[in-house]
Amino acid sequence: RAGLSPLDVIWSGTDVHGDRVSGRTSDVTELAERFRAARPFRLVVQGPPGSGKSIFARRLMTELLQLDDPGPVPVFLPLWSWNPGQERLHNWIKRRIKEDYPELGDTATFGPTAVANLVDQGMVLPVLDGLDSLPRQWRAKVFGDGGVLSQDRLILTCRTGQPERADGFTVITPEPVEPAEATRFLGAVTNGSVSEWSLLGADPDFAVIYSEPRLIYMTSAICEKTGATPAKIAGDLSLDPNSSVETRLLGMQVTALLPGSGRDEQDYPPYYREKAEGWLKVLAPLGLWNRVDLRDSDWRKPSGRSYRDYVGVSCIAWWNIHRGVPFLERHQAWLRATAAGVLSFLVICAIFRQDRSWHYSLLTSAAYGFTVFLAGFYLAAEPAEPTDRTGRGSRSAVRGGRRHPALAWWSSRLWSRWRPLLLAGTWTLIVTGLLIGYRTGRIHGRPHNEFWYWTGVKTGFFDGLNIAFIVVFAFLIAQVPRAPRGLWAIGSRPAGRSEIRKFVTVLLIGVVFGLEWGISAVLKGQHPHASTLGQAALTGLITGVDFVIGVWLFQWSSAWSQAERAPDPRSAARADLIGALTRPLILGFTFAFAFGISAPFNFTGVDVWAWFVVGLAMGSLETEWPLYFVAIRTIRGRDQLLPIRLMRFLEICRGSGLVSSAGQAYQIHDDHLLDLLTAPPGYVATALSPAPAEPAPVAAIAAAPEQ
Description:
Elements: E1 10-14, E2 20-24, H1 29-36, E3 41-46, H2 53-66, E4 73-78, H3 89-100, H4 107-110, H5 114-120, E5 124-129, H6 136-144, H7 146-149, E6 153-158, E7 170-174, H8 179-189, H9 194-199, H10 204-209, H11 213-226, H12 230-237, H13 245-257, H14 263-267, H15 273-283, E8 314-316, H16 326-330, H17 332-352, H18 358-379, H19 395-401, H20 405-444, H21 450-478, H22 499-523, H23 533-556, H24 569-597, H25 605-620, H26 625-636, H27 646-656, E9 660-662, E10 665-668, H28 671-677
Parallel strand pairs: 3-6, 3-7, 4-5, 5-6
Antiparallel strand pairs: 1-2, 1-7, 8-10, 9-10
Helix pairs in contact: 1-2, 3-5, 11-13, 17-18, 17-25, 18-20, 18-25, 19-20, 20-21, 21-22, 21-23, 22-23, 23-24, 24-25
């Protein structure tokens, strides 16, 4: 904030041998020299929110890069993009370096294993920033990863008291800021002079402010946004002496930084101060619990979640907004599947009515509609809570876990993974088989004709089986339909198998499915002049390969609208929306070409359009955007609890400094600000102490003076 002269904070602590270690924002030479030493040196930069941990880590990086040292190169790595339960530390570091430095992927210059060699040979010094951006249950896994403790040189930033296992680490914390430095900094970044700020040093409130970097930054931000003088700040602080200085500053900060008058309001007039403050109160607790009714002014207590488990990690993500409407969150699979199935049924019925009878149109379109519904109902449902390795979590796991806990855990995990596929495939076979079998036997069997009745049974079974395979393989290859992303899906996913291996696996699936498709066309014997077995197998093979290649292309096309590298969450949301509007067309054309054109046992134009609708509907069940739009309208209501242009509002808040970005989501990193935004009526924070264990999530800011 002060250009080349930022706030100078002294950081000090002791190393593993008990020797004093220190450094300051303006001078990190001593710490840099320690990293040059041959012995291992793992550093934890620990402090309260807003104390300048990340800035200090970057200053140390700058000094290390200036040294003539053949040692490891420091690389800044935000921890929000790492899931320790899914990916090892070294694998995550390799993936992030490949994403952030794509030029290292030039195999002709650096070779095919350049990044892997750098990491494996210890030539990278990871700077892991923001342990507090991870859920509490993940933080313990960070230190449980062998790659962390095996790293000779490491820098980690975190909140005070967060690394429960810091053995073998040098921990440094910020010392109180010198009053002269605080007044110098405030004089450099605000309208007040150094002398004006110095005159307030005798005030007990300013004695507290001048000692803590976070409060100094808050004061400077308030002055910068409002143009207030030191005397005006002192007067506002004196209005409510019963609450802590921190609480009063936070109340002033919220009203000062939220959009009031100016360019933002001119760009979007509904963003006036009173509404914006209420909107942020509504959004603040969204990332803390899975089920909080954001439409209720007296929010219900969280179910199954503790505030202390998620303190400081208020995750405001567009794909997570629907969790603020409990009915929508609990029944999203049923609602999405019903909407997609009914729309598919109506459109396909209208298509078939162009040249088919009512009975044929209704039964056939019902089969297609039920296919979409069943796929969405079973495969787009929220996954069950995973059991732990002791086998606890379900009755069957407990019974099996008494003697074989590991076996019970793996069997429970395997069943939870394949159960939706089994249910979706089985019910698709039954429902579509009955509808198609009845249509074939009943309609063609008038008057009574045993040949068509028996043909109807065979046709229903094989067509139902083929459609069930389509649903299962589309999910296995492209993960459509799918459940909404989890609460913490704010970063890149761990790298999976290579695309070449995926493509080879997909082709094998297509060959097997294609042969089954062709053979079943002969076995059902629906047409007197059906193709021979060899011709049918060849045609089916083309159909199966066309299908799996198109579905693989749909999965591969997700990289076209990849949002992980977007500069801010709003840009990431735009990229995701573009993909949500265009990618379902790939699956629609795939289904139309594979099952309408490539399988000409009985080619008709209406079948091409019908399969296009099915593919389009299933591809649309991959995105959370319909849930987002419904949730925004529902929560907004008549009282306008949320803005229609929520992304715009959150981006303004980010530019104002009220929230920060973590991948594709926004976060309120300041625990105390989060306390105020989620505090019950009448709650007053009287000391600079940690938040209460479980505050009631009621939207109100207490003890905040009027600005």
